[in-house]
Design a protein that fits this description.
By secondary structure, the chain is an alpha/beta fold. The protein is built from 11 helices and 8 strands. The chain has an 8-stranded mixed beta sheet with strand order 1-2-4-3-5-6-7-8, sandwiched between helices. The longest helix has 17 residues, at 306-322. The N and C termini lie far apart (38 Å).
Length: 324
Protein backbone atom coordinates (compact mmCIF):
# COMPACT_ATOMS: atom_id res chain seq x y z
CA UNK A 1 0.00 0.00 0.00
CA UNK A 2 1.49 3.37 -0.96
CA UNK A 3 0.91 6.60 0.93
CA UNK A 4 -1.73 7.86 -1.50
CA UNK A 5 -3.71 4.64 -1.12
CA UNK A 6 -3.49 4.99 2.66
CA UNK A 7 -4.72 8.58 2.54
CA UNK A 8 -7.61 7.55 0.32
CA UNK A 9 -8.56 4.82 2.77
CA UNK A 10 -8.39 7.34 5.61
CA UNK A 11 -10.53 9.86 3.70
CA UNK A 12 -13.27 7.26 3.36
CA UNK A 13 -13.88 7.60 7.12
CA UNK A 14 -14.10 11.39 7.09
CA UNK A 15 -17.07 13.71 6.70
CA UNK A 16 -17.25 15.54 3.35
CA UNK A 17 -15.11 18.63 2.92
CA UNK A 18 -16.66 21.90 4.06
CA UNK A 19 -15.79 25.58 3.85
CA UNK A 20 -15.57 27.87 6.87
CA UNK A 21 -18.50 30.12 7.69
CA UNK A 22 -16.09 32.52 9.43
CA UNK A 23 -12.43 33.42 8.85
CA UNK A 24 -10.56 36.11 10.72
CA UNK A 25 -7.14 37.35 11.77
CA UNK A 26 -7.02 37.86 15.52
CA UNK A 27 -4.59 40.33 17.09
CA UNK A 28 -3.13 38.39 20.02
CA UNK A 29 -0.50 40.95 21.01
CA UNK A 30 3.30 40.95 20.89
CA UNK A 31 3.16 41.80 17.18
CA UNK A 32 1.39 38.53 16.26
CA UNK A 33 -1.80 37.98 14.26
CA UNK A 34 -3.35 34.53 14.40
CA UNK A 35 -5.55 33.04 11.68
CA UNK A 36 -8.81 31.59 13.05
CA UNK A 37 -11.63 29.84 11.18
CA UNK A 38 -14.98 28.31 12.12
CA UNK A 39 -16.96 25.71 10.23
CA UNK A 40 -19.88 23.36 10.76
CA UNK A 41 -22.89 24.38 12.85
CA UNK A 42 -22.61 27.98 14.20
CA UNK A 43 -24.88 26.98 17.10
CA UNK A 44 -23.33 23.55 17.62
CA UNK A 45 -21.14 21.98 20.28
CA UNK A 46 -17.80 23.79 20.12
CA UNK A 47 -14.53 21.96 19.52
CA UNK A 48 -11.12 23.53 19.06
CA UNK A 49 -8.47 21.76 16.98
CA UNK A 50 -4.82 22.13 18.05
CA UNK A 51 -2.42 21.24 15.25
CA UNK A 52 0.94 19.60 15.63
CA UNK A 53 4.52 20.67 15.17
CA UNK A 54 4.93 23.18 16.74
CA UNK A 55 4.71 24.92 13.40
CA UNK A 56 2.54 22.51 11.43
CA UNK A 57 -0.48 24.73 10.81
CA UNK A 58 -4.04 23.52 10.30
CA UNK A 59 -5.39 22.03 7.07
CA UNK A 60 -8.84 21.62 5.45
CA UNK A 61 -8.76 17.88 6.24
CA UNK A 62 -8.84 18.69 9.97
CA UNK A 63 -12.38 20.05 9.56
CA UNK A 64 -13.61 16.63 8.47
CA UNK A 65 -13.25 14.68 11.72
CA UNK A 66 -16.49 16.16 13.06
CA UNK A 67 -20.16 15.91 12.08
CA UNK A 68 -20.75 19.41 10.65
CA UNK A 69 -24.44 19.26 11.57
CA UNK A 70 -23.55 18.94 15.26
CA UNK A 71 -20.17 20.57 15.90
CA UNK A 72 -18.97 24.14 15.72
CA UNK A 73 -15.37 23.47 14.70
CA UNK A 74 -12.72 26.10 15.47
CA UNK A 75 -9.28 25.80 13.90
CA UNK A 76 -6.37 28.22 14.11
CA UNK A 77 -2.77 28.46 13.00
CA UNK A 78 -0.52 28.89 16.03
CA UNK A 79 1.90 31.80 16.17
CA UNK A 80 4.45 31.90 13.38
CA UNK A 81 2.99 29.27 11.06
CA UNK A 82 0.32 28.67 8.45
CA UNK A 83 -1.58 31.87 7.71
CA UNK A 84 -0.59 33.52 10.99
CA UNK A 85 1.88 36.38 10.87
CA UNK A 86 4.77 37.10 11.15
CA UNK A 87 5.70 33.86 9.39
CA UNK A 88 8.36 31.60 10.95
CA UNK A 89 8.83 34.05 13.83
CA UNK A 90 9.96 32.76 17.22
CA UNK A 91 9.76 36.15 18.92
CA UNK A 92 7.20 36.14 21.74
CA UNK A 93 6.37 32.57 20.77
CA UNK A 94 6.25 30.14 23.70
CA UNK A 95 3.87 27.52 25.05
CA UNK A 96 2.44 30.08 27.45
CA UNK A 97 1.78 32.57 24.66
CA UNK A 98 -0.18 29.81 22.87
CA UNK A 99 -2.18 28.94 25.99
CA UNK A 100 -3.07 32.62 26.29
CA UNK A 101 -4.03 32.75 22.60
CA UNK A 102 -6.38 29.77 23.01
CA UNK A 103 -8.14 31.54 25.88
CA UNK A 104 -8.32 34.76 23.88
CA UNK A 105 -9.99 32.89 21.01
CA UNK A 106 -12.43 31.09 23.33
CA UNK A 107 -13.40 34.28 25.13
CA UNK A 108 -13.66 36.22 21.88
CA UNK A 109 -16.12 33.65 20.53
CA UNK A 110 -18.19 33.78 23.71
CA UNK A 111 -17.73 30.10 24.61
CA UNK A 112 -17.84 28.74 28.16
CA UNK A 113 -16.40 25.29 27.39
CA UNK A 114 -15.23 23.32 24.40
CA UNK A 115 -13.94 19.92 23.36
CA UNK A 116 -10.16 20.13 22.86
CA UNK A 117 -8.84 17.96 20.02
CA UNK A 118 -5.08 17.73 19.44
CA UNK A 119 -2.41 15.40 18.12
CA UNK A 120 1.34 15.13 18.69
CA UNK A 121 2.44 18.62 19.80
CA UNK A 122 -1.27 19.48 19.65
CA UNK A 123 -1.82 16.83 22.36
CA UNK A 124 0.95 18.42 24.44
CA UNK A 125 -0.65 21.83 24.11
CA UNK A 126 -4.12 20.40 24.81
CA UNK A 127 -2.89 18.86 28.07
CA UNK A 128 -1.08 22.01 29.19
CA UNK A 129 -4.08 24.17 28.31
CA UNK A 130 -6.43 21.82 30.18
CA UNK A 131 -4.18 21.77 33.25
CA UNK A 132 -4.08 25.59 33.18
CA UNK A 133 -7.82 26.08 32.49
CA UNK A 134 -9.53 22.83 33.58
CA UNK A 135 -12.93 24.48 33.85
CA UNK A 136 -12.91 25.33 30.15
CA UNK A 137 -12.50 21.79 28.79
CA UNK A 138 -15.47 19.44 28.43
CA UNK A 139 -13.58 16.54 26.77
CA UNK A 140 -10.03 15.87 25.60
CA UNK A 141 -9.38 13.98 22.37
CA UNK A 142 -5.66 13.25 22.05
CA UNK A 143 -3.68 11.50 19.33
CA UNK A 144 -0.01 10.47 19.25
CA UNK A 145 0.78 11.67 22.77
CA UNK A 146 3.92 13.76 23.29
CA UNK A 147 4.67 15.18 26.76
CA UNK A 148 7.79 17.26 26.04
CA UNK A 149 10.12 15.15 28.16
CA UNK A 150 13.85 14.80 27.65
CA UNK A 151 13.45 11.06 27.10
CA UNK A 152 11.08 11.68 24.16
CA UNK A 153 13.44 14.22 22.59
CA UNK A 154 16.40 11.89 23.09
CA UNK A 155 14.48 9.10 21.38
CA UNK A 156 13.81 11.06 18.22
CA UNK A 157 16.84 13.36 18.02
CA UNK A 158 19.40 11.24 19.86
CA UNK A 159 19.38 8.20 17.60
CA UNK A 160 16.71 5.97 19.16
CA UNK A 161 14.31 6.11 16.21
CA UNK A 162 17.36 6.13 13.97
CA UNK A 163 18.13 2.54 14.96
CA UNK A 164 14.95 1.52 13.12
CA UNK A 165 15.59 3.80 10.13
CA UNK A 166 19.40 3.97 9.89
CA UNK A 167 19.52 5.17 6.29
CA UNK A 168 17.16 8.04 7.05
CA UNK A 169 19.00 8.90 10.26
CA UNK A 170 22.27 8.97 8.34
CA UNK A 171 20.78 11.47 5.86
CA UNK A 172 19.60 13.64 8.77
CA UNK A 173 22.81 13.38 10.79
CA UNK A 174 25.30 13.57 7.92
CA UNK A 175 24.61 17.29 7.45
CA UNK A 176 26.12 17.90 10.90
CA UNK A 177 29.87 17.55 11.64
CA UNK A 178 30.65 14.52 13.81
CA UNK A 179 31.87 16.61 16.74
CA UNK A 180 28.40 18.25 17.01
CA UNK A 181 26.24 15.16 16.74
CA UNK A 182 25.93 14.65 20.49
CA UNK A 183 23.35 17.49 20.42
CA UNK A 184 21.44 17.39 17.16
CA UNK A 185 18.80 19.89 18.33
CA UNK A 186 21.52 22.41 19.19
CA UNK A 187 23.45 21.74 15.98
CA UNK A 188 20.40 22.27 13.82
CA UNK A 189 19.43 25.36 15.83
CA UNK A 190 22.67 27.10 14.89
CA UNK A 191 21.89 26.54 11.22
CA UNK A 192 18.13 27.16 11.30
CA UNK A 193 18.76 30.57 12.89
CA UNK A 194 21.93 31.47 11.00
CA UNK A 195 20.46 34.42 9.12
CA UNK A 196 21.46 32.80 5.83
CA UNK A 197 18.12 32.05 4.14
CA UNK A 198 19.56 29.44 1.79
CA UNK A 199 21.19 27.58 4.66
CA UNK A 200 18.07 27.86 6.83
CA UNK A 201 15.90 26.34 4.11
CA UNK A 202 18.38 23.51 3.44
CA UNK A 203 18.49 22.47 7.09
CA UNK A 204 14.77 23.09 7.57
CA UNK A 205 13.98 20.65 4.78
CA UNK A 206 16.28 18.06 6.33
CA UNK A 207 14.68 18.56 9.77
CA UNK A 208 11.13 18.32 8.40
CA UNK A 209 12.07 15.42 6.11
CA UNK A 210 13.40 13.32 9.00
CA UNK A 211 10.03 13.64 10.74
CA UNK A 212 7.84 13.33 7.63
CA UNK A 213 9.51 10.11 6.53
CA UNK A 214 8.76 8.44 9.86
CA UNK A 215 5.21 9.74 10.29
CA UNK A 216 3.22 6.94 8.68
CA UNK A 217 3.62 3.20 8.80
CA UNK A 218 4.47 3.19 5.10
CA UNK A 219 5.86 6.32 3.48
CA UNK A 220 7.10 6.49 -0.08
CA UNK A 221 9.00 9.36 -1.68
CA UNK A 222 11.40 11.95 -0.30
CA UNK A 223 8.95 13.68 2.05
CA UNK A 224 10.50 17.04 1.03
CA UNK A 225 8.38 20.03 2.07
CA UNK A 226 7.98 23.42 0.35
CA UNK A 227 10.59 25.90 1.53
CA UNK A 228 8.24 28.29 3.40
CA UNK A 229 6.46 25.48 5.22
CA UNK A 230 9.68 23.66 6.12
CA UNK A 231 11.37 26.78 7.45
CA UNK A 232 8.46 27.69 9.76
CA UNK A 233 7.99 24.09 10.89
CA UNK A 234 11.66 23.43 11.60
CA UNK A 235 12.43 26.77 13.27
CA UNK A 236 9.39 26.59 15.54
CA UNK A 237 9.93 22.95 16.51
CA UNK A 238 13.58 23.54 17.19
CA UNK A 239 12.82 26.69 19.20
CA UNK A 240 10.29 24.87 21.38
CA UNK A 241 12.46 21.78 21.84
CA UNK A 242 15.56 23.82 22.66
CA UNK A 243 13.58 25.48 25.44
CA UNK A 244 11.84 22.23 26.54
CA UNK A 245 8.51 23.92 26.02
CA UNK A 246 9.18 26.41 28.84
CA UNK A 247 7.79 23.84 31.28
CA UNK A 248 8.72 23.86 34.95
CA UNK A 249 10.23 20.41 35.17
CA UNK A 250 10.83 17.50 32.84
CA UNK A 251 7.63 15.60 33.61
CA UNK A 252 5.33 18.43 34.65
CA UNK A 253 2.35 17.27 32.57
CA UNK A 254 2.19 14.01 34.51
CA UNK A 255 2.88 15.81 37.80
CA UNK A 256 -0.17 18.02 37.17
CA UNK A 257 -2.46 15.35 35.76
CA UNK A 258 -4.53 15.36 38.93
CA UNK A 259 -5.86 18.77 37.86
CA UNK A 260 -7.67 17.27 34.86
CA UNK A 261 -8.64 13.79 36.02
CA UNK A 262 -12.29 14.85 36.20
CA UNK A 263 -12.28 15.54 32.44
CA UNK A 264 -13.14 12.65 30.07
CA UNK A 265 -10.21 11.87 27.78
CA UNK A 266 -10.10 9.75 24.63
CA UNK A 267 -6.54 8.85 23.61
CA UNK A 268 -5.69 7.37 20.21
CA UNK A 269 -2.20 5.96 19.72
CA UNK A 270 -0.51 4.13 16.87
CA UNK A 271 1.21 0.96 18.08
CA UNK A 272 4.17 1.61 15.76
CA UNK A 273 4.46 5.36 16.26
CA UNK A 274 8.17 6.09 15.76
CA UNK A 275 7.91 9.81 16.51
CA UNK A 276 5.91 9.60 19.75
CA UNK A 277 6.23 6.00 20.97
CA UNK A 278 3.24 4.46 22.82
CA UNK A 279 4.94 4.58 26.22
CA UNK A 280 3.83 8.18 26.80
CA UNK A 281 0.18 7.50 25.95
CA UNK A 282 0.21 4.45 28.21
CA UNK A 283 1.70 6.44 31.11
CA UNK A 284 -0.78 9.25 30.64
CA UNK A 285 -3.83 6.97 30.62
CA UNK A 286 -2.73 4.60 33.39
CA UNK A 287 -4.65 5.39 36.57
CA UNK A 288 -6.78 8.10 34.94
CA UNK A 289 -10.26 6.78 35.59
CA UNK A 290 -11.97 8.90 32.91
CA UNK A 291 -9.36 8.24 30.22
CA UNK A 292 -9.70 5.60 27.53
CA UNK A 293 -6.61 4.55 25.58
CA UNK A 294 -7.30 3.25 22.09
CA UNK A 295 -4.16 1.54 20.75
CA UNK A 296 -4.36 1.16 16.95
CA UNK A 297 -2.53 -2.07 16.10
CA UNK A 298 -1.41 -1.24 12.56
CA UNK A 299 -0.62 2.47 12.59
CA UNK A 300 2.21 4.92 13.00
CA UNK A 301 2.03 8.56 14.02
CA UNK A 302 0.17 10.45 11.31
CA UNK A 303 -3.33 11.82 11.68
CA UNK A 304 -4.00 10.43 8.20
CA UNK A 305 -3.32 6.79 9.13
CA UNK A 306 -6.57 4.93 8.23
CA UNK A 307 -6.95 3.23 11.62
CA UNK A 308 -6.29 6.44 13.51
CA UNK A 309 -8.71 8.41 11.33
CA UNK A 310 -11.47 5.84 11.79
CA UNK A 311 -11.05 5.80 15.57
CA UNK A 312 -11.00 9.59 15.91
CA UNK A 313 -14.21 9.91 13.88
CA UNK A 314 -15.82 7.17 16.00
CA UNK A 315 -14.88 9.12 19.14
CA UNK A 316 -16.24 12.44 17.89
CA UNK A 317 -19.46 10.69 16.85
CA UNK A 318 -19.70 9.23 20.33
CA UNK A 319 -19.26 12.70 21.86
CA UNK A 320 -21.95 13.98 19.49
CA UNK A 321 -24.38 11.23 20.46
CA UNK A 322 -23.75 11.82 24.17
CA UNK A 323 -24.49 15.53 23.78
CA UNK A 324 -27.40 15.39 21.32
Amino acid sequence: MDRTAGQNRAAAHLYPGIDPFDQRMVEVGDGHKVYVEQCGNPDGQPVVVLHGGPGGGCSPAMRRYFDPAHFRVILFDQRGCGRSRPHASVENNTTWHLVRDIELIRDGLGLDQWVVFGGSWGATLALIYAETHPDRVSHLVLRGVFMMTQAELDWFYGGGAGKFFPERWDAFASLIPEDERDDMIGAYSRRLFSGDMQQEVRYARAWAGWENQLAALQVHGSGESPADYARAFARLENHYFTNRGWLEGDDVIMANRHLIEHIPASIVQGRYDMICPPHSAHRLAHGWGKAELNMIPTAGHALSEPGITAELVRITNEIRDTNS
